Amino acid sequence: MLELLPQQLANGLALGSTYALVAMGLTLIFGVLLIPNFAHGELYMLGGFLTYAGVTAGLDFWLAAVLATVLVMGLGVLVDRITFKPLEQASGLSLMISALAMSIVLQQIATITWGTEPRTIPNPVPGILRTPFASLTYHKLLIIAVMVLGAVGLWAILNRTRLGLSIRAVSQNRDAALLMGIEMWKVRAATFAIGAAFGALAGALLGAAFPIYPTMGVIPVLKALVVLVLGGIGSIPGAILGGLLLGVAEVLIAGYISSELQDIGAFVILVAMLLVRPQGLFGRAQIER
Amino acid sequence: MSLLSVRNISVSFGGIHALSDISFDVPEGVVWGLIGPNGAGKTTLVNILSGLIRPTAGSIAFDGHEDGPWSMSRAVEIGIARTFQQTRAFNGLTVRENLRVAAVAGAGHALDLGIARRLGLEDSLDRVAGELPYALLRRLGVALALSLKPRLILLDEPAVGLTADEIDRMGALIRSMTADGVTVLLIEHNVRFLMSIADRVSVLDRGRLLFEGTPAECQRNPQVIDVYLGRGGEDA
Amino acid sequence: MHGLTRPLLVSLVVLAAALAAVPLLNEYVLYVAMLAALFAILAVSFDVLLGFTGYLSLAHGALFGVGAYCCAYLTARAEVSFWLALPASALLTAVIGALVAVLAFRTRDLYFAVLTLGIGLVGHQLFLVASGITGGIGGFVGIPSMPEIALFGSPSQQKLVVALIGVWITYLAATAFVRSPLGVACQAVREDHVLAQALGIRIAVARLSAFVFGAFFAGAAGALFATFSNFVAPESFAVLAAGFQVVVLVVVGGMGTLWGPILGAVLLTALPESLRVASTYSLLAYGALLLAFIIFAPRGIAGFLIDGARRLRSARAGREPSA
Amino acid sequence: MTRKHLLAAAVAAAIAGQAGAAETVRIGELHPITGPASYYGLPESQAIRLAAEQINAAGGLDIGGETRMIEIVSGDTQASPTGGVAALRKLMADGVQIIIGPLSSGVAPALTPIIASADVVQIVDGSIAEGLTDGRRMFRNQATVGDYNLALERLAKARGYDSVAIMTDRFHAGFMESQDDLTAVFSEQGNAVVAEEYYKLGDTDFSGQLTTIAGADPDALIVRGYPSEGALITRQVRDLGYEGQIVWEMVSPPSTVMKNIDAATMEGVLNAIPPTTEDYLNLGNPRAIAMAEAYEATYGSVPGELAALSFDALHIVAAAIEKAGSIEPADIAGAMATLTAAEVPALINTYGAQEDGRLFDETGQVSLPGAVSVWQGEGWVPLTDLAAD
């Protein structure tokens, strides 16, 4: 069994990268705006469906993915306007319920538009990279690469642009940022657009290997929430590390303990993390007395 | 014998000493003022006395209870109540419900509307706290603390943001508390207000106790004038 | 406790009216009404935690399942009488609820929601994996029916009567709870837990009792569900099934009132049934309804009714309705 | 298109119901018409309606000399136990005493206690879970999961696999229940089970389990579940370098398979289940072809894999009613218990006859042995050397 470990670790990192990719958008929005956007899973789903629609209409995969991402970015801003903006003064509880409601609405709109039968986009990068230790499909390597590039890109936007500075200022202290003349609506729109872009990109890429259907976002967003708690809600490095950690843990549980316990294992890790270190690996302390 | 006895209290947050080695004694039935510039550690001290945070070192005794520092619920149980600098009330509940929560759930006795009358809240009982005008909200904060029938009340800047009339009214209220046998520990930025009602004054500066004495002595003390009064003027 | 006379009388009248309607209903309506009643029990007890204490728990569906499987096991395998199994299931669920609460209350807000979501998912998975007790994915088959009550009606009518009385008891117990010092303390926790602590309120005790209260009645509702259905499967207790549904019932009915969630349960069980033909659109309507309520009417149907009654009263008193 | 037809049929049924309520025989069908499972449920529902329309067009039912039309009443189970019970109660409250369905193994056991204590006769045309029939009021013209496994067991024996690995969808009630029996038979036959792994409906990454399986390198990998995941598993285990025989045990329309895997990777994969509509079409079964043509003409789509079973179920009910000369559930059930395949000439499926020639055994179960097909090109082709006896 141990000789399979390199392969299992590679599997885990590939799986973890998909989790991290979905979780990054979610954590950005929460970190900056304190909004738990459960509808992120549906943005991911729409990324998949819109890319599918583009490819079926004859577009090249990459063009379709980019177009879908741009569309979903707009949709992300729209979701904010409808779901969260009217609740600016309300409690976190209302935000969570509102987000859950929006994800049902988006799922049903997709059901009515596309039906429930799963679809797939032809894989743009077929083939497998085989090494003596482990083999990974090029598709998985692509996801890992996009995850890394996305993280670097996000870091650059946050740390090297004026917009990024505003976003960081709001995430540090919203009131002070407002006093300094930062326009909140711009930060909001940008944050939702960037967050949605991550969701859409993940949907487009994963849709090229896995079935696309209206409720496909439910599980990834649940996993992303686990990732957020592991890494620390609102932390980008936390989302990446938490995602990889969860992916590796799940694969190792399935590979070495029991595949029946794979889901339980993931959530036991979640519960354990909340008990030992409620703020997560990189989170700011938020400990209940 | 003093009602409250604070011995060698120190606390640090992430390596920064917020309070170091604070000791003082508050006798029963006085208004004890506590002043100091921003960041001197006044609110930290109130937080420790009320059990919101734990000091790194030191002990507190209160009214025969030697086991301090204590938890918030223990502090209330032995007769210490507090207000907050940014007034806190249950914003979604009415004034009456607020007082009821404090009386029934907090202190464990029936709702006493006498406190509402004393604070001039009797006409606002059915208004939702979140919609009260600022001055009434501040009075509600004090009313909540008084509902616990404490022996010591810690008031964290009760006069901030009030008009001159309101400040006078608050001053009278604080004096009347001592008449009822409630000892008051008063943190204030408004030095004139504090000096006019305090029996004794302590001055904190950067986590250390700089001075203790009567208001008159305080105003004459060169050190105090230097670090505090001299720097920002009366209403800094 | 003196304030309980009015809710007692009003609820008795409503219960009597509901009971009087039972003989008029056919088997299908009896079944749907029975489901609505069970969801009303769940919703009312859940509102003590969500509406009165301010914590969004997504583990409630799993606790509902604990009650159901517990009753199934006791009556089918251990051959315990249902009338004994019912309180036993509720108590066991309360104990498990207390354990969950001790874990979960180390966090709050979003963390609390995510943690209870995780616990709810683990619970659902355990129902699947512990197939020796639960029957796994195939479900628990052959749960004995509730013993017949000789006095009246058909078995289906008796089920509905028991369920309605269950709603009534839950409502009264919840009313007594939220008016007790503990319940008042819960509302303080909901509004501002630091201030609550400063007022000497033992917030840990308050919110723990709210959670355990909810778990107890979730267990009772689960036990009733098991004996009424003769069959239970893990799917009914998934986070996204019962766990989420109960949130919707409470929000649409009216958080922070105890009769609102009953209205929510009745309307939202009846509505999809009457719209059976178009169930894709009905789920869309469900989501849109929830969204509309949380944004435009966060106090739910109960909020509308309360405002309406107030306007009516002030109009009758000859004054302008206040804003 | 489909919805329009449904609506038209519903309107027609409503008018027929008003015009001559006394003359129709009301037959209820319970399938998931909406929701994710509608992909399987809707074709079943439509096949039943098609069969009823054909019988009505041919003059209706002859019940003791009196002619009556069939009226189909649909109940949507939404593939959930409570939804299924509500739909059944609704049918019963509307006076329906003959029930065809349900599809889902998660729904069927919830209906059983209600049907057992009511004056109703049921024929299950979808669920393969064990123990749903009693031979008195409850019958089934679908295979049980045990029947499913027979073909698999025969295949493993015939091919002499020394080692097998099993991947099972743990959300599939029927497959989970029969897992222990299957592994016991394999061990007895000398097919050593070297790995038993699980996944669930909707999973997309199976790498943890499949790495273990590929590492054990069994002669055969058996995948039990639904085709979306089956295709992903097949693709992913090949990516991991596994080269042994892959055997599916699932109803798997090629259209769904092809959405998740390329034909080249599927080539040579075996599938061991009772024949589906598609298999009968491939085998040139004239009744299957006629049904498929009528179905396409009416609904504008190809019939689903399970449509033949539903189509048969209505014909069995119709034959039993005519044989009984009554629409009383007890009489219909009595007639159904003694029915022979010859008395139902419209049947598409080739059911194995019981010893005394009857269609159903003592417990109300048909014999519908599985067969093995192999994937060639873009679809399944029956394997003649392993065909059902």
UniProtKB/TrEMBL annotation, chain A:
It is found in: Cell membrane. It comes from the Bacteria. The keyword Endoplasmic reticulum does not apply. InterPro entries: ABC_transp_permease (IPR001851), BCAA_transport_permease (IPR052157). It is a multi-pass membrane protein. Keywords: Amino-acid transport, Cell membrane, Membrane, Transmembrane, Transmembrane helix, Transport. The chain crosses the membrane at residues 12-39, 59-79, 91-116, 136-158, 189-210, 264-282. Coiled coil: none annotated. Belongs to the binding-protein-dependent transport system permease family. LivHM subfamily. This is Branched-chain amino acid ABC transporter permease.
Automatic annotation (TrEMBL), chain B:
GO terms for molecular function: ATP binding. The keyword Transport applies. SMART domains: AAA. It comes from the Bacteria. Residues 4-231 form the ABC transporter domain. Keywords: ATP-binding, Nucleotide-binding, Transport. It holds the Pfam family ABC_tran. This is ABC transporter ATP-binding protein. It comes from Paralimibaculum aggregatum. The lineage of its organism: Bacteria, Pseudomonadati, Pseudomonadota, Alphaproteobacteria, Rhodobacterales.
TrEMBL record, chain C:
The keyword Membrane applies. Keywords: Cell membrane, Membrane, Transmembrane, Transmembrane helix. The chain crosses the membrane at residues 30-50, 57-76, 82-103, 110-127, 160-179, 199-225, 237-263, 283-306. Its main location: membrane. The keyword Membrane applies. It comes from the Bacteria. It is a multi-pass membrane protein. InterPro entries: ABC_transp_permease, LivM-like. It is found in: Cell membrane. This is Branched-chain amino acid ABC transporter permease.
UniProtKB/TrEMBL annotation, chain D:
Keywords: Amino-acid transport, Signal, Transport. InterPro entries: BCAA_transport (IPR051010), Leu-bd (IPR028081), Peripla_BP_I (IPR028082). The keyword Transferase does not apply. The keyword Transport applies. Residues 24-358 form the Leucine-binding protein domain. Residues 1-21 form the signal peptide. It holds the Pfam family Peripla_BP_6. PANTHER family: LEUCINE-SPECIFIC-BINDING PROTEIN, PERIPLASMIC BINDING PROTEIN OF ABC TRANSPORTER FOR NATURAL AMINO ACIDS. Belongs to the leucine-binding protein family. This is ABC transporter substrate-binding protein. It comes from Paralimibaculum aggregatum.
